[in-house]
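Chain A, query sequence.
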Amino acid sequence: MARLMLTPIGGDLPESTVAQPAVLEREAELVARRAALKLGWGESYQQRVRAKGKLTAWERVERLADSPDAIRPLLTFVNDGETFGEEKKSSPSAGVVTVCAKVAGKWVVVVANDNTVASGSWWPRTPEKIIRAQEVAQKLRVPIVYLVDCSGLFLPEQGRSFPGRRGAGHIFAMNARLSAAGVPQISGVFGDCIAGGGYMPLISDKVYMTESAYMVIAGAALIQGAKGQNLSSLGIGGADVHVHLSGCADFRVPDDTACVDAIRAEVASLPSSAVEYYRYGLEAAEPHFEPAELTRILPAKASDPYDVRQVIARLVDDSLCWEVMADRGSEMFTGVARIGGLYVGIIANEQLLTPHPSLPAQKRPGGILYREGVTKVATFSRACNEDGLPILWLQDVSGFDIGTEAEKQGLLGYGSSLIYTNSTNTTPMLTVLLRKASGAGYYAMAGLPYEPVLQLSTVLTRLAVMDGRTLAIGAFNTKLDDNFKIVASSEEERAKIEAGMKAVEERIERDMNPYAAARQMDTDEIVALGELRGYLTMFAEMSYQTMGVRRIRNPRIWSMHDLAVLTGEAGGVA
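Chain A, predicted structure.
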């Protein structure tokens, strides 16, 4: 009977290979921008929260987690750089902290209203951000914790966050769906929970309230205006009411720290993680090669090549992997490795020149989807889904092959087969946009429209249909000759066309910036290259944590072994 045999991948880098200054500069910018957003509206607002005897949102999250290293932020840059209302107010991270955190040894999704930003109000995109976090919990069937401290909608922009399919009301629909799916939901209510903030915790399995918290459909000011009654919000919907009279909450606790500690105890009481069971007696192991070396491998310039196997070697346990169908579609890498001791399927774009399948003397550029690679990836993706293996997609793709040969080979049809596969897979998928994420290649490689559990970007990511120069050429095509040189009747006209092309190119290049994508939720998080391993380990453990929610075959009966036999490979199995 077949068993898995992993072999070394990658190798030592030449001593002369150093990190490019452009990469290091961008990662330093990432660190600085994160730190600024973590402050919310600033130190003075944090002190205002603490003066009330309360913790900030981040202090609650950090107390809840097992350690600072057990926190993986998500959607940090939503609304970054945007302002709202006539007063042009900012909403750092859309006024809500969303993370995956390990709590009592189990991964959970955490949603925490940022009480330093307009008392935790919901801004444009805040509901969408909360819903996205709920979707992660729903897909992986892992617990979700709500640390609720929300004064309702930011009313000057209510038209952008109240209605619509992804508006604030959809949060409560997700609450219900999570409950129906048996996903544990635990809420701590810490402060002003008005309207939607009051509804948000109610469908949770357990609801804790502090002595200073209240949940109300409408606050005291609104009631006084509507009914002329002089009341306090605490008297209307505090713990006295909702724990002892209405039954809308389960437990009362004295303060924030007691509430967070009680939630930790609830998570600890949940069934234990299945991760150890699915490791099959293996221990998690660090890569043989340091993940920090990725800054020495990935070039900042999107067109510069690199060996994707060197990247994989710095992400997987012991830098060991089984490459599947290695002699087919060599522009694509497909293989199985362990991450955190757990088996994961890996699909990646090769960036080096690869042989033409029918013209061995010719080489083809990497980062492009050709027929052989597309069929290989579709087959491998189906096998992973059948075997229950989570899939890691490492994207660095310029798009599909184009031209006469591609059309005659029916590349459109084969691409549709891959898209069908990724659209119907039920196994968890995580997509990393290493650098280029271009055109339909971004779709075919399980980009965000195809609903991976998460999509991560790096500081090098460029997400767009095409780069700025190419798009400018397309936009001004009627003004160019066959060699893409400007055709003009005068120097004045030439200068005008040059200026127009430059403006288009610069605008597209700005749009391709990863922060632009993260601002509008076109990617879930921007991570430093050295952080990728930690996020991938989290993904693997979350994918295997809950038992019985998807079929996970034992490795002896994987479809992968059948593929190895049919393609004449023997390296991966024995």
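Confidence is low (pLDDT under 50) at residues 222-231. The domain at 35-270 is CATH 3.90.226.10 (2-enoyl-CoA Hydratase; Chain A, domain 1).
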